[in-house]
Amino acid sequence: MQNKGINWQRIRSHIMVFDGPLALIIFLIVSTGIVTLYSAGIDFPGRVEDQLRNILISFLVMWVLANVPPQTLMRFAIPIYTFGIALLIAVAMFGMVKKGARRWINVGVVIQPSEMMKIATPLMLAWYFQKRAAVLRWKDFLIASVILLIPVVLIAKQPDLGTALLVVAAGFAVIFLAGLSWRVVLGLVLAAAASIPIAWPMLHGYQRDRVMTMIDPTTDPLGKGFHIIQSQIAVGSGGFAGKGWLHGTQAHLEFIPERTTDFIFAVYSEEFGFIGNCILVVLYMLLVIRGLMIAANAPTLFARLMAGSVTMIFFTYAFVNMGMVSGILPVVGVPLPFMSYGGTAFVTLGMGAGILMSVQRNRKLVQT
Fold first, then answer.
1. 36 closest CA partner among 266, 230, 240
2. Most buried of the four, 85, 178, 208, 268, by CB within 10 Å?
3. pTM, full prediction
């Protein structure tokens, strides 16, 4: 009678799925985030413990997706996208309203369906271009634009401009990497610039206020401009080397709003200064570079498009968050990746990292 025993080699292959360089970069950013969150959330008991739970869940999601081959993931593109659209419609019909926005729905637990569309939309687009790769024509790009616009419009109506922007960035990355001409991109940019006078009156009042506040926050220093002014003071007061961990006055005197979530970069900048900012920017640059390297070595069009879109999500998260905290972009409610406190967004980032690791792990496979 043959004793099969435990197949340790197979178990090891499922455990050792993490791409070393990518995992190290994410670990360093997450560690930096926990240290900063401890300081930023010192007046919020349990905030660090909750974030550690979010990290654990994100880690598990990352591990599961890293074990799923891109070919298998592609089979679920249509169901995941369709389910996400159905949830967005459900939110529009009977979702929960918080702070004037209808973004959440209770399905036993309270979830924000727009977050899953950051992955579901590029997943669907990557599937579509993989199926049309042999006979790709201009009308395929039009159909892809419709696939992208459906969730973007539903999310923008919640209203949630920040998430809509991230979905646009991830989806457009797929369309561009699939072969969209630079001339078309330039034409779209010029058309968008020309449409500003038409689009401006269509924006919500608070959205117009955010743009005007970005241009000159001093027009309402105690109201709409308070967020930007206080975050700029925190970033500037950090100086070259920072005030030191736990010694940020803007944060601990509660001048920085949302200091554990969207404005955690202001807390970090005040305590670790210009040197700390340079280190953090380098870490995010390495994250993007590693993602692009994985995309370049992907074995199939689908894998390459997914890896490229996930990398664009990471870049857009970091760029927009740092830009709004520094006052060069409007405040749109985008968290700093792997640093800001939050559950759904952190899990979404874990899903993206897991997809990158899956693509890297299966880089030598050739789709039949």
1. 266
2. 268
3. 0.88
